[in-house]
Write a structure and sequence with these properties.
- There is one protein chain.
- With 270 residues, the protein is α/β, with parallel strands linked by helices.
- 43% of the residues lie in helices and 14% in strands.
- It is built from ten helices and eight strands.
- The protein has an eight-stranded parallel barrel, surrounded by six helices.
- β5, α6 and β6 form a beta-alpha-beta unit.
- α4 packs across α5 and α5 crosses α6.
- The longest helix has 21 residues.
- It is globular.
C-alpha cells in the first residue's frame, strides 16, 4: 500500500504567525504545510518577504503542496473580473516563489454557470502554467451549487485541460450531501491534495460549517472507506489536517499540531 504523507494545513493553527506555523509543522513531525495567502501577505506587510517564507520552509525540510486561495475568478464580469484576475496573478506569483505546485481556487458561493466556469478555469490554468503553479479547483460543501465531486468534475472536464484538478476533503463531501464512493470517479492525478478531518454528529449536516470540523477519528465520517478509495485512485501524496476550530486556536499550536498528528496516524495506520 502506498504511504500517504502527513501535512499540516495552517488553518488548524490559524492565529499563529506564519513563521511559527512553519516551525510548528516541522517540530510536530509533518512533512509539509499548506500556507494561506492572508498569512503570507501579513508577513510581507510587517516587513518580511516571500523569500523569507521560502527559506524557512526549505530550512525545516518541508514541502508546500498548495497555497490557499484564489477567489473571484469563476464568474465575475468586466472590470471586477480583471481586478480579481490581477489578484489571482499576484497570489500565483507568490505561490510559485514559495515552491508550491498547486494553488487552491475556490468556487463562487451562489448560483454557478458551469460552462463559463470551465472556460475561466482553463484560462486560470493557462495563466498558472505561465507563472509556474497549477490552480486546483475546490468544491465546497456549503456553497449553493459547486459542492460535490460530481460538480467539480463537470467543470474540470468542461475545461478540457490535462492539468485540471480538485481538492478532496471529508467535511466537504459530507456537507455537500455527496457520497464518499464518488472518489472512485477520480484518478489520482486529478487530486491536487487531500484535506483530512472528521464531521460531528451534531449539528445537522445542513447547517454545519468549517468551525464544526473535528479531529480525525472524533466524528462519524467513514474515514477508513475514504482512505481506501483515495488510495485506489493511485493518489500517494499528502493528507493535510485542516480544521477551523476557535478552541484549538486558543491552545498552544505545537500541542494542537502534535495532537492532530497522533489522531491522523491512529486513523491511517489502524
Amino acid at each position: 500500500m502506498a504511504r500517504l504523507k502527513y501535512c499540516l494545513n495552517a488553518s488548524t493553527i490559524m492565529t499563529t504567525p506564519i513563521m511559527r506555523q512553519i516551525e510548528v509543522a516541522a517540530e510536530a513531525g509533518y512533512e509539509a504545510i499548506e500556507l494561506w495567502h492572508d498569512h503570507i501577505d501579513a508577513h510581507v506587510k510587517q516587513g518580511g518577504s516571500v523569500a523569507d517564507i521560502r527559506k524557512a520552509v526549505d530550512d525545516h525540510g518541508l514541502a508546500v503542496p498548495t497555497t490557499i486561495y484564489l477567489a473571484g475568478w469563476f464568474d465575475s464580469q468586466g472590470d471586477e473580473y480583471l481586478a480579481n484576475l490581477d489578484e489571482c496573478k499576484r497570489r500565483m506569483t507568490d505561490s510559485a516563489a514559495i515552491g508550491a505546485p498547486h494553488i487552491i481556487a475556490g468556487p463562487p458561493g451562489g448560483p454557478s454557470d458551469y460552462e463559463l466556469g470551465a472556460v475561466r478555469y482553463r484560462e486560470l490554468l493557462e495563466l498558472g502554467r505561465s507563472i509556474g503553479v497549477k490552480p486546483a479547483m475546490e468544491f465546497l460543501g456549503f456553497v449553493d451549487q459547486l459542492n460535490t465531486i460530481e460538480d467539480a468534475l463537470e467543470v474540470m472536464n468542461g475545461s478540457a485541460d490535462p492539468d485540471a484538478t480538485t481538492v478532496l476533503d471529508p467535511f466537504h463531501i459530507f456537507r455537500g450531501g455527496g457520497s464518499v464512493e464518488s472518489i472512485g470517479l477520480l484518478s489520482g492525478n486529478q487530486i491536487a491534495v487531500s484535506h483530512f478531518n472528521d464531521v460531528p454528529a451534531e449539528p445537522p449536516r445542513e447547517v454545519q460549517h468549517d468551525k464544526d470540523r473535528v479531529m480525525p477519528g472524533d466524528g462519524k465520517f467513514a474515514l477508513d472507506r475514504y482512505l481506501e478509495l483515495l488510495l485506489a485512485t493511485g493518489y500517494d501524496r499528502y493528507l493535510s489536517l485542516e480544521l477551523f476550530r476557535e478552541d484549538l486556536w486558543q491552545q498552544d499550536p505545537l500541542d494542537v499540531a502534535r495532537q492532530g498528528m497522533e489522531k491522523t496516524r491512529q486513523v491511517v495506520e489502524a
